[in-house]
Structure formats: structure tokens, C-alpha cells
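Reopening this one. Same input as before:
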Amino acid sequence: MPSIKKKLDAGAFNLKDQVIAINRVTKVVKGGKNLSFAALVVVGDPTAVVVGYGSGKAKEVPMAIRKGIESAKKNLVKVNMTQTTIPHASLGRYGSGRVLLKPAPEGTGVIAGGAVRAVMNSVGIQNVLTKSIGTTNPHNVIKATFNALVNLRDRKEVAALRGKAVEEL
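Same output, byte for byte:
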């Protein structure tokens, strides 16, 4: 597992937000039903290769989205990338959700569906093959995708772990 990452400052990046899912939820109380909205949001800066996700709940949709964006800015992660794709294949797991990310040659594009596509576009990965296995719940799919992205290692990190020079790999 990768070491604990230092917290990234959201103000230093030009973040773009994307809403993944909006869910209408009701709570049954003595006086009837309380209606509220839950929003799942991804924010990212393709130039700095950072991305984060968050969820927010509120009585109105715009306020839920705003809360989701604030939450997403608090857990930004930096992703290891090679030119326009990822350095190696990675399988992310969260709950019953599995997301497989595979590097792709130039010109392939983002082969992904729904929630995974939004994350790939937000982080700036242009060529990648993905497969979502198991659950289709967007919360679990997003968390599995982030798990796969965090597990990506660059050549220097792998060389240091093996005690070799980068040229030997």
C-alpha cells in the first residue's frame, strides 16, 4: 500500500467540478415525509493531475452540489501518469465494486462508463481502458476507481522499493 499522502491545497489548482449522481431521499417522520437531496461530485485539475470526490446532502439540489464540491476539495489525490495514460494496469476494490484500469496506446481515448469516465476526464487521463466489475452503485464505483488510481506507482518509486536504478527496470 502507498504511504500516507500529504493533504493537497485546493486553492492552488484550477479545479473543474462534475456531478456524478443526484439522489432524492426521504425520511419518514411523525408529521409526514422530509424530502432532501444527496449529490455525488468529482473535482479535478487535468493540468496538475489531481482529482477528488465528495458527497453532500441538503434540502435543495444546488446546495447539495455545493456541499459535495467542498467535500471533494478536502480529499484531493495526486495521480501518477505517463504522458496521456497510466503507467500500469491496476485493480481498485471497494465493497463489492471492482474497477480495472489498463493503459492504452495513443489515440484510444477513454473507454469507460458513467462514474469512471467522469473521474478519468477530471484527472486528465486521455487514453485508458476500464472495466467496472460488480456493483453499479456510483459511490462504490468512484471509491474503487480512486483506490486503483492511488495504487498507481511511477518508475522511480518502484526502483526505490526494489533497491535498483531506474535504468535497470
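So the earlier flakiness isn't reproducible anymore. For the record, The mean pLDDT is 86.
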